Automatic annotation (TrEMBL):
SUPFAM superfamilies: P-loop containing nucleoside triphosphate hydrolases
SMART domains recorded: AAA (SM00382)
The protein's name: Ectoine/hydroxyectoine ABC transporter ATP-binding protein EhuA
Main location: membrane
InterPro entries according to UniProt: AAA+_ATPase, ABC_ATPase_HisP-typ, ABC_transporter-like_ATP-bd, ABC_transporter-like_CS, Ectoine_EhuA, MetN_ABC_transporter-like, P-loop_NTPase
CDD domains recorded: ABC_HisP_GlnQ
Top-level taxon in the UniProt lineage: Bacteria
Compartments in which it is found: Cell membrane
Species whose genome carries this gene: Georhizobium profundi
Length: 255
């Protein structure tokens, strides 16, 4: 049996008295492409943000490659992880946000070279080579010297994906990467995500409302509702033969 690369074990996340994740159990295997669907407010973004250590949890354990994100057991006691440990864990993951979050005052090329140089210590030459390769992969070789505001939303989001990939993460997280785009620009971004999924090298976790796309590219679809996984399974099963009433209601509303 393969060890899951991501594991949520009875994870509780609260904001004040509002429980967002209620003893969530969730696992992702290495190389798997998992899509999370579900109503607004069901905790989808929170799951990704916890993995990026942008949010703390109140109970349970989150592990990436078998190592807990925040707490390590020493002589049976739980102790908070060090900043160094968190940095190491964060480097395993890349995230693409709905609002592209590019550095506005940097060229496209510099957006891609900055973190590899500052965080990974790559030379300017190596970082530039890596960036150029990635820009070619996302079809933006001719845009390297532009600034984000000179690009379309679809182009900016492809830069966002390339920028995350420049850190060579093992896991890519996408939080509604096409929700902020004009409809005619959605396809070019989905095409890049589809290419990545087809390569089967990365583990991918995608939150999306693009049901057709989820159905085509996912190994597994998870339907989140009220901070729990209401139902999950292979896309063809979940979309054509949902077992739970809540899943049926949701799919009826969005399909
Ligand atoms: P989704 O991505 O599924 O729409 P989220 O994970 O963003 O849902 O949010 C889940 C719930 O947590 C929502 O009810 C939201 O209002 C609440 N929430 C998210 N972030 C915060 C925060 N920083 N402070 C308080 N409540 C929050
Ligand atoms: Mg969200």
């Amino acid at each position: 049996m393969t060890e899951p690369i991501i594991k949520f074990d009875k994870v509780v996340k609260r904001f004040g008295s509002h429980t967002v994740l209620d003893h969530l159990d969730f696992e992702v295997n290495p190389g798997e492409m998992v899509t999370i669907i579900g109503p607004s407010g069901s905790g989808k973004s929170t799951v990704l943000r916890i993995l990026m250590t942008l949010e703390q949890i109140q109970d349970g354990v989150v592990t990436v490659e078998g190592e807990p994100l925040w707490h390590e057991r020493k002589n049976g006691d739980l102790v908070p992880a060090s900043e160094k440990h968190l940095r190491k864990m964060r480097e395993k993951l890349g995230m693409v946000f709905q609002q592209f979050n590019l550095f506005p005052h940097m060229t496209v090329l510099r957006n891609l070279t900055e973190a590899p140089r500052q965080v990974l210590g790559l030379s300017k030459k190596d970082a530039t080579e890596r960036a150029e390769e990635l820009l070619e992969r996302v079809g933006l070789s001719d845009q390297a010297s532009k600034f984000p505001h000179q690009l379309s939303g679809g182009q900016q989001q492809r830069v966002g994906i390339a920028r995350a990939l420049a850190m060579r993460p093992k896991i890519m997280l996408f939080d509604e990467p096409t929700s902020a785009l004009d409809p005619e620009l959605v396809g070019e971004v989905l095409k890049v995500i589809r290419q990545l999924a087809n390569e089967h090298e990365l583990t991918m976790l995608l939150v999306t409302h693009e049901m057709q796309f989820a159905r085509q590219v996912s190994d597994r679809v998870c339907f989140f509702d009220k901070g729990r996984i209401e139902e999950q399974g292979p896309p063809d099963e979940l979309f054509t033969n949902p077992k739970r009433e809540r899943t049926r209601e949701f799919l009826k509303a969005v399909l």
